[in-house]
Specification:
The chain is an alpha/beta fold and about 290 residues long. About 35% of the residues lie in helices and about 20% in strands. The chain has 10 helices and 11 strands. Strands 1-5-2-6-11-10-7-8-9 form a 9-stranded mixed beta sheet, with helices on both faces. Strands 3-4 form a two-stranded antiparallel ribbon. Bound molecules: manganese (II) ion.
Length: about 290
């Protein structure tokens, strides 16, 4: 692994430090903090997620296992990004993701703004992208930007057919995005449907995705702001942390080949959102761990 632009951070996620060579899952921070249209401060997010992760139990009660028992997890630290250059930062992110994939491991990105998903997901071949988000992120451009937090899912359509995208938890979009969604075949299970019809939604998502490779992107604003106040663009009317934990336990059974957790803005967080992020990640790791048993 080329590491000259990765700043090592110890302790890493969960406080554990398995060597990269032995790792099944590889974390790295991609603290992109450029395109926010409202709150910013994403650059501090990976550190806050790591801090929360070190103060939570690694034994996941709902799964009955310690995530580090069967699973080797490594953390490469934070990627040095070009503060004002989305494309250059994106190339650096994609290079690390490609290397981790080449070494047959699961990359797990700690954002950073949602824009990182475009550069990360682009590095996978033929995957489905499952998105947990309050927003569609399907604008073709936003305030003149083609590649930003508000367009990230639309940019994925530059290389993925719409049938390979699943949106969960959305409750906010523009009229143009709603019309665009109607014209495409993106599977969208909005917040109300997810909350009221959880089991059926999970069943349908599993039917759509089957045993395809899945890239999972978790925008923390999918959670109701009551449970995750420290995000860039809070959107009321979302599911609880408990509901999303349950959802991730179930989605974790899919063939997940890459993940990111994005949109935490620590300057607007009292710790609630960082702890929610860390717990959601543990739940996913427990699901991975279960599969590797
Ligand atoms: Mn988003």
């Amino acid at each position: 692994m080329q590491t000259e632009n990765l700043i090592p951070i110890r302790p890493g996620f969960g406080g554990f430090d398995f060597p990269y060579e032995k790792a099944d899952v590889v974390f790295f921070g991609a603290p992109m903090d450029v395109t926010s249209s409202y709150r910013s401060g994403y650059r501090f997010a990976p550190a806050k997620i790591r801090e929360a992760s070190a103060n939570l139990e690694t034994y996941v009660q709902s799964s009955g296992l310690d995530v580090f028992e069967k699973l080797n997890v490594s953390d490469l630290g934070d990627l040095m990004l070009v503060p004002t250059d989305v494309e250059a930062s994106g190339r650096a992110i994609a290079a690390v993701v490609r290397q981790i994939l080449k070494d047959r491991k699961i990359p797990f990105l700690l954002g950073g703004e949602h824009t990182i998903t475009y550069f990360s997901a682009k590095s996978f071949k033929d995957c489905c992208v499952v998105q947990l988000d309050a927003h569609r992120d399907l604008r073709d451009e936003y305030m003149g930007d083609k590649v930003c937090h508000a367009t990230v899912m639309r940019r994925l359509l530059d290389f993925l057919p719409p049938e390979r995208i699943v949106q969960l938890g959305v409750r906010s979009c523009s009229k143009d995005e709603a019309e665009f969604l109607d014209r495409t075949h993106i599977a969208a299970y909005d917040s109300g449907r997810l909350i009221e019809d959880h089991a059926e939604v999970v069943k349908e998502v599993k039917d759509i995705v089957g045993d395809e490779d899945v890239y999972l992107t978790v925008d923390l604003d999918v959670l109701d702001p009551a449970f995750a106040p420290g995000v860039a663009t809070p959107e009321p009317g979302g599911p609880s942390t408990f509901q999303i934990l349950k959802l991730l336990r179930e989605l974790g059974e899919l063939n997940i080949v890459g993940c990111d957790v994005v949109e935490l803005v620590p300057p607007h967080d009292d710790g609630t959102t960082a702890f929610a992020a860390a717990r959601l990640i543990y739940e996913l790791l427990a699901a991975f761990s279960k599969k590797s048993r």
